[in-house]
Amino acid sequence: MKKVLIISADDFEDTELLVPYYRFKEEGAHIDVASMRKGAIRGRHGYEIEANKALSEINPDDYDMLFLPGGKAPEAVRKDMDAVNISHSFFGKNKPVAAICHGPQILVTAGLLKGRRATSYKSVAPELKLAGAIYEDKEVVVDGNLVTSRQPSDLPVFLKETIKKLKEPR
Amino acid sequence: MKKVLIISADDFEDTELLVPYYRFKEEGAHIDVASMRKGAIRGRHGYEIEANKALSEINPDDYDMLFLPGGKAPEAVRKDMDAVNISHSFFGKNKPVAAICHGPQILVTAGLLKGRRATSYKSVAPELKLAGAIYEDKEVVVDGNLVTSRQPSDLPVFLKETIKKLKEPR
Fold first, then answer.
1. ipTM computed for the complex
2. CATH class of the domain defined by B3-167
3. Nearest CA among A112, A152, A106 for reference residue A7
4. Domain locations in chain A?
5. What is the rounded CA–CA span in Å between residue B2 and residue A162?
6. Nearest CA in chain B to A152
7. How would you write the pLDDT of chain B (170 residues) with one tens digit per residue?
8. Shortest CB distance from B156 goes to which of A22, A156, A159?
């Protein structure tokens, strides 16, 4: 069974967390949701989901894929050194990382986008470029282990590419 | 390309409409959203989606599958004779119909559940039984052309079965 780690916090964009969450479950994956503290986190539209893990207790080696949803959550998550270190571990082992909307901000802080093709919500584009990313205004950008998209309307193609990565034998 | 008809209205349960909507798009389906009137409809959590068709202009023969999401919308939709007639057409031609949560209320009004195995949100169960359905408290019930589920947490298995139906050659 594939294991997916979702990192988020309060004020996540509800569809960007929940649509992939249900999609990974449909695929039979085990999912852990990690945040700065264990407990319920609440989306901008009022949906709640349990963060069943604290970032401090995550061992990235336990997971096959990292998923970073958007909303305002990444602005808080990027300040957490555990989140940054976890991202480094996935990139270091070339394991799939999927991020949408503001999610790539965490990878900017981690310094992982230099020379990488990527996209994000349009207001985040200047940050990505400053971080050395090759920014592409496309519904989905796949560059090696990294899958990025811009916004909720990109979810269908984002998930198509993300599920492909999840299914790759490792 | 498969064509899916979603029938809903204001106060839909956002995830129950949007998660399948994005999932059908991932599958490459064309989707029309129909309501009593054309125009934006708004979910209980504030998400909006465009009803690009009025129920009165729908020809059910144009579609491969009917999907009825939940929330408070079905209580309004069931009073619309076009919605009832459209449901009859899908059942009459044995085409797939998927309904979740309060969605099956429309099929109750249409008198289509007599002797059929089905599920729904728990508060709707008495109605289904009165309508002659064989109610099963399971995350998904598949009976011929009909796929039903209870609530948002059932979405992964609901969609697994619904996508199977959508992919069946006709």
1. 0.95
2. alpha beta
3. A106
4. 3-167
5. 23
6. B22
7. 999 999 999 999 999 999 999 999 999 999 999 999 999 999 999 999 999 999 999 999 999 999 999 999 999 999 999 999 999 999 999 999 999 999 999 999 999 999 999 999 999 999 999 999 999 999 999 999 999 999 999 999 999 999 999 999 87
8. A22
